[in-house]
Every structure is written in structure tokens, then in C-alpha cells.
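FIELD: query
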Amino acid sequence: DEQYRILREEGTEPAWSSVLNSIKPEAGDTGVFLCAGCKQPLFRSEQKFESGSGWPSFWAPVGAAVTERTDFKMILPRTEIRCSNCNSHLGHVFDDGPPPTGQRFCMNGAAMLYCDDDQELIAAAK
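FIELD: result
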């Protein structure tokens, strides 16, 4: 399925396809984005921003929740982001994000789950 392809085969979902794009901290949405592979907390909703890319984007992860590695799949090197606990592929990070970090963690929605502060779990996978 799509979630397996993304997490284990380093796939990418189509832009604008994730229900997690609808989570808006500026609209009062508060919660945590979890790895769909192991449920480790990855990002807080307060770290999410609208990048216009079509994928859920964040300016920083929670602590040491993610690891980076160089990815050469698109000819030019990119920085791939993986879950630091289960090594699942999550997306990529770019240096065109907002303050305070200047980074844009561009994540596949299908690689994450969202749990709001009321403990309601939203799965992004189809």
C-alpha cells in the first residue's frame, strides 16, 4: 500500500493528497505528529506552517526525533529525513523555511499520524 511504499521504499505521495495538510495551528489546531511506523512524536502542530508545496511542512522536529542522510535520487543531493527510532522514510528538509530555523521539513503525510491534544488520532494513510 501507499504507506508501506513511502515508509519502507522511500516513496513520495502526490502533492495536496494528505488530510494532514488541513491541520492549521493558526486555526487553533494543537497536537503532535507521530511516525506512522512506530508512533514516535516527530513534530508539534505549533511547528507546522503552510509552505505552498502541497506536503505538510514544519520548521523544526521535536528534539532528536529525526535523522538526516544524503539522498541522490533526484541527481542533485537532497537531505532525506528519517525517524530516529524506526528508520522510516518521512520526507526531506530544505533551507527555504521560515524563522526561527530557516528550514522546511517537507514530510509525506502518509508517513505520519496526528494526535490532537484531546487524544483523537487521525491517520493520514489511505
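FIELD: remark
The helical segments are 2-9.
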